[in-house]
Amino acid sequence: MTTNEMYQAQDNELLSIFLDEAREQIDTLDQGFVRLEREPDNSELVQGIFRAAHTLKGSAGAMGFRGIADLTHAMEDVLDRVRNNTLVVNAGIADALLRGLDTLRGLEQGVEEGRGDADDGTAATVANHLRALARGEVVTAVVDAAPTAKPLDALPDDHTALLVQFNADCQMPGIRTFMITRAVEKLGSILEMQPAQEEIDEGKIGQRLLLIIQTDREEDTLRIAVQNVPEVEWVRLGRGAAAAGMRLDMPSREKAADESLEPETPVHAATKTSAVQVQQTVRVNVDTLDRIMNLVGELVLDRTRVAQLKDELSQEHPEDEEFLRDLDVVTHHLGSIVDDLHEQVLQTRMLPVSQLFNRFPRLIRDLSHNLHKEVDFVIEGENEQLDRSVIEKLIDPLTHILRNAMDHGMETPADRLAKGKPQQGTVKLLARREESHVLIQIQDDGPGINADRLKEKAVAAGLLTAEQASAMSNQEAYGLIFSSGLSTAKAVSDVSGRGVGMDVVKRNVESIGGVIVVESELEFGTTISLKIPLTLAILRALIVRIGKVIMAIPLSHIEEALDVPYEAIRTVHGRGLLTWRGTVIPVVRLSEALHGCGESAQGKELHVIVMRYERRIAGVVVDQIINHQEIVVKSLGTYLGDIPGLAGATILGNGRVALILDVAKLFDGGYLQEGAAVGVGHAAATV
Amino acid sequence: MESQEHQFVTDPEEQLVVFTLGEESYGVDIEVVNTIIRLPDITHVPQTPAFVEGVINLRGAIVPVIDLRRRFELPVTDATKSTRVVVVEQQGMLVGMIVDAVTETLRLPAENIEPLSALVVSIDTQYLRGVGKLGDRLIILLSLDRILTIEEQGILQTMGAAAGSKEAVPA
Questions:
Q1: Which of A68, A469, A480, A516 is 20 to 30 A from A236 (CA-CA)?
Q2: In-domain check, residue B7
Q3: A298, A656, A685 member nearest B41 (Cβ)
Q4: Chain A closest-CA separation from residue B53 CA (Å)
């Protein structure tokens, strides 16, 4: 690597750190502004927001992104007035701040995409507006401009950078600085100091001090020398190349990193070496994680394969006792290591659902303004964890559901009062861990879903016949909200009501193996529950044979596998029916529901697998139940494309390919309704 | 760039993998052949056209396999010791083709390749791009992108549900 390349790499690293932090601060501001509007007197909140804006301004300035820095500065001006109680937050101010934030996001996006933070004039206008607001009353309190902070480049090996943070209530940073310089001078020579001595003499010193010294002393010696000075909260060292990126106003890691890690050495606990601090977190490319996950998936399969081979071997050569015993030990050990590895890799991909939920307070806030509704938005369980890929796939569905909850699921304040409900409605978004699933619920206390009206609409839209509608339970009718082309909103609005969206919601949720259930009670509200698997990559499945087809049925959908005599299944109007645990359920031969499975066995006993999908239960008849195992879901590839009834394929322990049954399609695709009964007729062709 | 298989031949020479179906010899450009394997365990896939034999596990990847005899509507025969799967790569996807036997690879000078018009072959000419003459032998050159066209893929997605054509075919 040439020196230039090295600098380039460091710049990229710095840029990506900046972007990470900027996004985090923008998110903090976003949530903060929305809360601020409701809690204008919460001084702690104002402080927090101000700090985030201030940090963002500083780091953007240090990176040379003037556009971001200027705009943030203007926001900071307003916040400073709020902080000093000379400006009261009203909707106008919150709007201006949020608009500033949106513009800021745009600029940040530009930087992310390599376009820099060039402004088309919007940012300047928004900033001017903010400044005008800040000037609106009394005198403008000029924020003492922080001394310019330039990030350090890599230093020579015998140079060390020292970043010192004084206690928040440190009264005499100037004196402490003097003490620190004296202590350090005994150990080496000071080459540079930020702020400079002249600035310090003018009183221009905050709570930070950055020193570059030339020394051959141990880092710990330096650290202890500085920490012995009173009112020093922490010190961070960077020797040689490790100093790159350090700057006077770099954010304290305490907030950014996992709190339990304590990357900063607190005073009087100077036993850790700096190397340990550096190694505590490593940023890993998501693609790398995905590749590792795939490899571990393969390993899980191979483990099963090895165990099977061992069983075969012990049957064929039972005389090799000693060898088999050794093999047994190794196989077990391998198995437990692979399981551990699998778990750990899954863990690295987990993110708290707050990553998902935090974007919604803003959405609700904007919607309630646009729709003139008053809503208290409550979030619970945001610390539950989900696989990164699952979280990404939930953004759109949850956005849709919340839009719907605000639009259809919430009355106007006047309507609510007229009904005797509290003027302000409640929308709750919660997450809860349940076994291998996370339950995500969206609850509202709105008018509930009118099942009869929904049925009328469905009949009018030609989705149902009148007979089907009248035979339909309310619970089944709620499922109609997921049909495309059906909307019960009185008028088409730009929020929802075009009748598209909820069908997409259902598809998205099911594409990640989730289940979506609607419950509703008129005048009491609606609850939409999403049961989401923790991870997508690996699932447990029952392996069965139907004719020539080997198929895997996800265990999560299976209630029971049982053998019944042929006579136990009655045929009524071409539908096979079985009484199971006191209820009558439809039963089909899988070989007839899916075309081209080949000859299916016609024995006296039938293997029936009872499956549940949402609230519906049905049985399918298969020829043979092979075993159950963990499978890694793979695509059937672009050549075959999406095949109705199949959700993908997997490679079994014995190396054979098994197809994965698409349970959702089986239930929703019309396969179970008619004409597909045991021993009768033709499979339904509905797709 | 080497010759793209679907273009009419302009290269001075082509290197072909030659296989047989019945009495006739067929050639595909060696560039598109990923591997040639013995007939493995094939998992049958319902809801697909009859010529899709199923899917196989090729070094951990799931690869669809088509029966070229069924694809070309030739009489279907049982697999023999010489039956092979020629796995070709087309637009980044792997597809296996079941053939009676793979006989050789050979170089074919471009001037030996003739268009189809003057010839009589037993399969639909839309799957062919020409015929190579080598001494008294005729080698039919396949047009892979025709055999695996997008339209065919469209059929794959809809035919299974509509026709269920596989039951009619002896296993």
A1: A68
A2: no
A3: A656
A4: 11
A415 versus A598: the higher-pLDDT residue is A415
Q: Looking at CA atoms only, how far is residue A599 from chain B in angstroms? A: 8
Range of the domain at B79: 13-163
Q: Using CA atoms, how far apart are residues A50 and A45, in angstroms rounded to an integer?
A: 8
- The DSSP element (H or E) to which A321 belongs, if any, is helix A321-348
Rg (CA), chain B: 16
The radius of gyration of chain A's CA atoms, rounded to the nearest angstrom, is 32
The encoded tokens of residue B156 equal 């794959």
Q: What is the pLDDT of residues A438-468, one digit of tens each?
A: 899 999 998 988 888 888 888 888 888 888 8
Short-list A33, A11, A293, CA closest to A152 = A11
Q: Answer whether B55 sits within 8 Å of A645, measured CB to CB.
A: no
Distance from CA of A232 to the nearest CA of B (A): 58
Of B43, B47, B156, Cβ closest to residue A658: B43
pLDDT higher than 90, residue A429: yes
Across B53-76, b (16+ Cβ under 10 Å) vs e yields bbbbbbeeebbbbbbbbbbbebee
For residue range A377-427, list pLDDT tens digits in order: 999 998 888 888 788 888 888 988 998 888 888 899 999 999 989 999 999
Instruction: Compare all CA atoms of chain B with the CA of A670 and give the residue at the minimum distance.
Output: B161
Answer yes or no: are the C-beta atoms of A304 and A653 closer than 8 Å. Answer: yes
CA distances from A343 to A330, A347, A556 (A): 20, 6, 19
Q: How many domains does chain B have?
A: 1
In the predicted structure, residue A303 carries a pLDDT above the cut 70? yes
Residue B155 lies in a domain: yes
Check which CATH number belongs to the domain holding B66 and give it: 2.40.50.180
